[in-house]
UniProtKB/TrEMBL annotation:
InterPro entries, per the entry: P-loop_NTPase, Rad50/SbcC_AAA
Protein's GO biological process: double-strand break repair
Family, per entry: Belongs to the SMC family. SbcC subfamily.
Protein name: Nuclease SbcCD subunit C
Coiled coil: none
Lineage start: Bacteria, Bacillati, Bacillota, Bacilli, Lactobacillales
Domain of life: Bacteria
Residue ranges annotated for the Rad50/SbcC-type AAA domain, each copy included: 2-62
Any one Gene Ontology molecular-function term assigned to this protein's record: ATP hydrolysis activity
Pfam families: AAA_23
Quaternary state and interactors: Heterodimer of SbcC and SbcD.
Length: 82
């Protein structure tokens, strides 16, 4: 069970898990909106999700579409996986 105050990030946790597994979120939030407002413009946002199934540990890593600041303007980073 996950509990917490309004705005604490409960839905964000489930959105991140769903995005890692399926490439989209379950809420009205788009994947590109998962980027933290506190992230530096040069930081890459990604979801890393570990889970265990039948004694094996799996790692899923996915990067949402995002704009990153570079020395000469910004660049749109798109995920190769859809």
């Amino acid at each position: 069970m996950i509990g917490g105050d309004t705005g604490a990030g409960k839905s964000t946790i489930f959105d991140a898990m769903t995005f890692a597994l399926f490439g989209s979120t379950t809420s009205e939030r788009e994947a590109k909106e998962m980027r933290s407002q506190f992230a530096e413009g040069t930081d890459t946002t990604k979801v890393v999700f570990y889970f265990e199934q039948n004694g094996k540990i799996f790692k899923v890593e996915r990067t949402p579409e995002q704009f990153l600041a570079r020395k000469r303007g910004t660049v749109l980073l798109k995920s190769p996986y859809r």
